[in-house]
Amino acid sequence: MKYHTTKTLILKALRISRSTYYYIKSIQNKPDKHAEITKIIKDIKDKNKSYGYRRVCLELTNRRYRVNHKLVLKIMKKNNLLSSSYSRKTRKYNSYRGQVGKLKSNQLNRRFNTDRPYQKLCTDISEFRYGNCDINHRIYLSPIMDLFSGEIISYNISSHPNMNCVMKPLKEVIQLVKDLPYRTTIHSDQ
Fold it and tell me: Is 80 exceeded by the pLDDT of residue 176?
């Protein structure tokens, strides 16, 4: 009869080979060879919470440490230090509320060129973020462009994308084109 130690019986019950057991045991006893870099990375993240691994790499370079960016990313993942401030899942501004009112047919029909000034005008609203990129650090631009020359005829910059933001440049353009002998088309997205 074969002599079995307690360790052998436990390994058989868990269905783990002896070599796997000793490999795991050797890993657990190994000192962390990146302990110094980990401490510096934690120090950088304490001072700059929004830094991702790329900016941490730059800061390490500024402090005269040569570390591969993959190692920095690995250490930051292991210690849960990755920044979630600039996630791609942040919600973008969307003003669409479904079909409201009547839809006008597409008058331009992708014919964006014209031979007369102020005959075809187009407009849209653009959102620009600055500072912290939160709701308080956004501005909205509403320009009206002449498709004849590509010139911006009128525009408005506002902190909110409301009706007043759109109507102010539109009223200016109406005063500009009221005496034209031909029809003016102002095109906007639906």
Answer: yes
